[in-house]
Amino acid sequence: VLLFASVMTMLAGAFLTLGRSQLALGGTVDQLDAADQACLSGVEYARMRLEHDATWGIPTGANSPPTLVHDHPLLRVWESRQNGTFHVAGIVENGRAAFCLDFLTAGQPLHSFTSYNLAGVLAGNWVPQTLEPQRASLNYLQAAAGSPTLSGSYVAKRSLPPRCVNLILRGASGRVTRGLDVTLRQRVLFPYSMAATGDVGVALTEEGRWQIDSTDPFNNRVVSNQNIYGPQVDATHAQMQFDATRGGSARSTQKIVLGGALSVAFDADGAVSVTASGGTDLQSESERARAGELAHGTFLPQAGDTQIPELNESDLKAPAGAQHQLPGGHYHFVGPDTVHYWSSPASTPGGTPERVFTQSIPDSGGNTAVTLRNRNFVVPDGSKVTLGGATKISGDNGGVTYVAIGYDADGALPDNASGMLRVDGDLVVEGSVVGAGALVTGENGALTLQGKSALAAPPDLGVALFAAGPIRMEPVSPLVSASTGPAESAYFELFKVALAQFESSPAHPHKGFTGSQLALNNWGSLPASEQVSAVTGGENGISDGVTPDPDHNNLRDVLIADVEVARLADALRGAFPVYAADTQVAAAFDQALTRYAAGQDGDGSALDDPGLSLGRFMHLALFLEQAQQAGGLPPSLNMLICDAGTGAIDGPNSSQIRARMQSLLTLFDEQARSGGGTLQSYVGQPQNPFLTATTNGASPRDGEFKGLLYTARDFHARMGGYRLSVEGSLIARGGSLVVEQASLLRNRFNAEYLDKLLRSRSAGSGPSLEVIWRSRF
Amino acid sequence: LKGFTLLEVVLACGLLGCVMLGLIALFLQLHAGSVKSANLTAGHYFAVERLQETLAPSAPWPPAGSRESGIYTLDAEKQTTFYHQVSVTALNPQSDYVQVRVWWWNGQRSGQGILSTSTGRVRFRP
Question: Which SS3 state, helix, strand or coil, does residue A16 take?
Fold first, then answer.
């Protein structure tokens, strides 16, 4: 009996221990969950604070003790600053659990820091505790999209991209502690480089390339809810390239076909459609893997629909200033600041206009709605202009017309500029759209752009093109493009060198190239007579003061340094194919070049001043231009003869050379202003903006866009062998998205433009955050 | 041969009976504790699951009413029925505290104390 009783007692003891362990386990599970939920409560609290203040958590300012900032029995939160650390401590459910998070400064190497002990927080005591750098949270939300990703000793857990915040939370309940690592990122409405509810079709020139990259390491996507027809991707010809380091993806609901022959058609309603014949249909796993490896990305056909959000006009950030109403119709530039107006957008320029506007266009109340300046149709900064019907904006041959949004009265683009041009119907712009703000076509209006859509505006500005109807993009029309050509690339280099030399040379004390009031930086506002003087000299020539100085220097006679001569001469030779095609032309050009440099005239007679001036270079350039037009030697070689004594230009050709210099300076000045710069900064930039696409540079006919390009219908761009670059996001919400005849299509996703342009992302409303990473420790 | 006296037999049986009664009572208590522990664990996970469902982005808001669920804990033929209630307390204009309380057997049973559990956390309303 005693033995039996002993065994039974032992068994009972064992069961008792087991039972207590089981109950303790239940309690531990409960505390584990409470600690976990406390961490999640901390995340929600941080989200709440960050949504209203994106700088919350950045440890700036003086030290401050723990201060109760949220007082509710279910959630009490204290915040404090101590020695470059921002501490947050919270207690939930009257002390059931607690959480802590501690911020260090993002972008600086992490270090150990002093925080508060969780058990102490639960007990209501602030007990200091030293923590490892890995426990630091970082607020990197306000970093620009192009900012470096934090890694190495700058980040606690993983690399942290810009526009993100990394929260490292500690939670405790009873004797159980938990850790939570959460990364939040500013939500992007359109996280795509390019997206269409219909097909996406891209057809390139033979050597063309489709380059898809992103400023955001998490978003580099091309999406179609039907088919994607891309260019060839094989071992010898990988025309479609994602970011080589970060990769990217192309996702479609149906097929992805690469390298097929595209056929583009328009239906009766003008909607674009695209089909492909031939090519490689990426149906098999092996085909997808091979193409993905060559293109540095992932191809995902048959991947299901993507929910592409619908954007309303009211989502766009609208300027808070004046609103103006103007009639629709045809606004046609006949001069730098003069516009002829017809009420019918289909009217042909010429004849008697219905109205003539000079320098500005007033609304019905007599207030200036639009200013006219250097062929810019300027919607002023802070204002919204509505055109009450279908509209066309164009200009006479001789220069590119711009719709310039958000510029100030001086033609400059202020920081944080914003304007809006709304058209109640179709809009055709024979030119470019530049600036900062939005261009909207409502009432199912189509938007047709011929030319660049945005120039090199400051990188933190962009344009939203919102079309209720389709968007059509084409390169600069033949008429407009007549003012630019391959020679502009060579001319740009020539003027760049000449102007730099003019500015720096002590031989030209009256330079006129610095200061906004001086001749060259005020070029567009100068009367024609003063422009002539600035080029050739005279009473009103370039001076170093507002008042013309008779002791002037002229630009035409500035001498080009010997070290630059060979390069610039080669640029001219390359710009005119007739040089390579006709030996007589080449010989005449080379002989004149040598003679000018040696102080001889084109016919070998002596000149007073040896060397190659800008005027003499222009002389040579015009010789090649005429030879090009004539298909050989021009009718008269006298044009290579300079006037002895004046050292520059002979009588018959001087006006022609002067006019060419004048028109080139006007062109450079317009380009400078449309980009928010000055002639000096434009000519001083390292890259020649007139290089042709074939020489791996940009061409004036290229389409370049920075911002959000959204159509509620479809998008079609026919590039005619030129480039199209879209930095931001390109969305066709109601149809297909087709780009054809492009020598380069570059899609670069940049969420920063979307933040700037969309109301929900406007300053003051705070970022909308999404969780992109969550792990427990 | 000397046998056990009647007194010895009665004492032995009494002792054995007392031990057996004590052991039976102990085993019954252990069984009840085991059932409670199993129910507590199941109830806790039920509460966490309901909290997650309530806070899911696609979930209707305000949360739906109470729901009951029969969950196998110890005996497949006698499932324990768990009940839950979601309560939402506004902390401030932008956030709430969402709590889920789960109970079974009316929340109390003689000798087993409180038969309920709860979980909850802050929910931010963007």
Answer: helix
Place of tokens 């204009």: B93
- In whole numbers, what is the pLDDT of chain B averaged over residues? 80
The distance from CA B9 to its chain's CA centroid, rounded to whole angstroms, is 44
Do A23 and B19 lie within an 8 Å CB cutoff?
no
Handedness of CA A543, A546, A550, A554 (dihedral sign): positive
Cis peptide before A133 (omega within 30 of 0): no
Q: Where is A650: in which H helix or E strand?
A: none
Rounded to two decimals, the ipTM of the complex is: 0.82
Contact yes or no for A751/A144 (Cβ under 8 A): no
Region B80-103 average pLDDT? 88
Cα–Cα dist A324/A340, whole Å: 19
Distance CA(A10)–CA(A374), nearest Å, equals: 101
CB contact under 8 A, A72 and B36: no
Task: Report pLDDT digits (tens) over B14-65.
Answer: 888 887 888 788 788 777 777 778 788 888 888 998 898 888 877 777 776 6
Total beta-carbon pairs less than 8 A apart between chain A and chain B:
95
* Three-class secondary structure of residue B48 per DSSP: helix
In this prediction, residue A760 has a pLDDT band, given cuts at 50, 70 and 90, of: low
Residue A103's closest CA among A175, A28, A50? A50
Tokens of B32: 């009840």
What's the DSSP call for residue A143? S
Q: Which of A21, A3, A12, A16 is nearest to B21 (CA)?
A: A12
Q: How many whole angstroms separate alpha carbon A360 and alpha carbon A372?
A: 5
Q: Which tokens sit at A627?
A: 């030879």
Of A1, A5, A23, the CB nearest to B37: A23
Across the interface, do A40 and B122 touch by the CB < 8 Å criterion?
yes
Chain A contact probe: residue of B37, B51, B122, B125 with most A CBs at under 10 A: B122
CB spacing of A30 vs B117 below 8 angstroms = yes
* CA-to-CA separations, A68 to A77, A598, B123, in angstroms, rounded: 6, 84, 20
Average pLDDT of chain A is 81
User: H or E element: which one contains A136?
Assistant: strand A136-140
Tell me the mean pLDDT in the region A236-265. 89
SS (H, E, C) A517-530: CCHHHHHHHCCHHH
Q: Do residue A92 and residue B89 have CB atoms under 8 angstroms apart?
A: no
* Residue among B19, B36, B97 whose CB faces A75 most closely: B97
Residues 12-41 in A contacting B (C-alpha not used; CB under 8 Å): 12, 15-16, 18-19, 22-23, 25-26, 29-30, 33-34, 37-38, 40-41
Cβ <8 Å between A15 and B40: no
Please judge whether B15 and A1 are an interchain contact, meaning their C-beta atoms are less than 8 angstroms apart: yes
The sign one gets for the Cα dihedral A300, A301, A306, A312 is: positive
Tokens of A476: 């600069």
Mutual angle of helices A487-504 and A562-575, in 10-degree steps: 160
Mean pLDDT in residue range A626-644: 72
Chain position carrying tokens 């991707």: A233
Q: For residue A49, what pLDDT is reported?
A: 92
